[in-house]
Amino acid sequence: MGHCCTLLLLALAGPVAAQQGSAVEAIAVARAGRFDSALALLARARSADPGDAEVRLAQARVLGWAGRQREAIALFDSILAVSPANSDAMVGLGYVYHWQRREGAAKKLADQALELDSANTDAQELRRAIRTRTRGTVDVSANWSNDSDHNTNFWQTLALSTPLTGDVRILATAGILEASDRVRDARRYGAEAGLGWAFGRVELSGLAGARRLEPDGGTSRTAATYRANLGWHPDPRLGLAAGYARYPFDEIASLIGRDLDIESLEGGFDARIARGLMLGGGLGRQWLSDGNRRTDGRAAITHEIGRHFSIGANGRALGYRQPGIGYFSPDRFHLLEGTAAVRVRRDAWNGRLSGGLGGQQIGRGSDTQAEWHVEAGAGRDWGDGNRIEAFGGVTNSAVSSTTGAFRYRTAGIALRLGL
Q: Where are the alpha helices (DSSP H) in 195-236?
């Protein structure tokens, strides 16, 4: 009799164990980025037992990770309608809201989950992620650059972002540039302030300010600056952006002494077209106060290989209506390169190394030249979003330098602190 009971219990437990195994296996497959395979496993498990709570919860999680957020929200809601005290579903739904930048709703769910279980590590991580995104930050950086035309710049910047209301932030920036070349020195002082608004899939920001330009031996002037940016994510896998700006053309010492201003209008997109495959591009138009105009376009594709590596291709084209005085202004510039990058992380430390190799054409009818660039950085994270990083790079891309120099070098250090 005991043997028969054991067989009966095993027979009854077998399907339950199989369903739980399917959920665990599907989560592991999804964490590897194979969302379609994970969802197929879960669909088969649900067809065998449509009411299995673990399978439904796993399916909702994977839908969220795959960017199918509407479906994920609907499934999480149905789980909570049946089990209002399911803290795992609360946290899962909270993460979807967090990815949609609905931080108030996400925080409410994280708090509810922690009321049920104060040791819930997933809820603690969610609340930490919400705090990192919504709190104020201060960014400080010091940067240096030099090109083979002997233009040397050293500049420091300070940026502040702090919440005003739930969806609105106060934005402010300030900076000092010290520039020199073989025959002159010059300085630039600037500051801007404005507001940023983020709600759901839309982000909007606008800032206004002024720059004081002081060339040695020349006439100083003060110029107004304006910029506005609009970002929209109609789908979690697609981002669109547009921006307008007006500012002085003051990137090197010789231009700080010129009475030149720029108006700029740009648009672009980033799209995840397949697992690990990103496509981006943009178009821009600039109007210079000396009557010149520039049109440019760019495109890039990147394929992520595992957690640490990526390869891709990058292209850019631009052209000016006429040659400008004192700045790089070819009638046509083309660049096409292959790129590769590696990223490593160990505990709080992280590093990156990237580079590209290709060709560039400077001016209509000219020969194609070899083009390359190398960049590296290393940093450390601590607390909730605090970070320090040192970085540097070198390239022979003519478009990297305002004068089209054949070698351009840059280095710097950046610090981010949470308020």
A: none
Report the DSSP beta bridge partners of residue 190.
175, 211
Residue 292 predicted with pLDDT over 80:
yes
Identify the CA nearest to 59 among candidates 35, 95, 83. Answer: 35
The model's pLDDT over 166-205, given as tens digits with 9 standing for 90+, comes to 789 999 999 999 999 999 999 999 999 999 998 778 999 9
Indicate the DSSP class of residue 105: H
Residue type, 11: A
Rounded Cα distance between 26 and 31, Å, is 9
Q: What is the per-residue pLDDT for 23?
A: 79
If we measure between CA atoms, which residue out of 29, 49, 33, 32 comes closest to residue 41? 29
| 180/186 Cα distance (integer angstroms) | 6
Is there a contact between 208 and 225 (Cβ–Cβ < 8 Å)?
Answer: yes
Q: Decide: helix, strand or coil at residue 232.
A: strand
For the chain, how big is the Rg over CA atoms in Å?
A: 27
State pTM to two decimals. 0.80
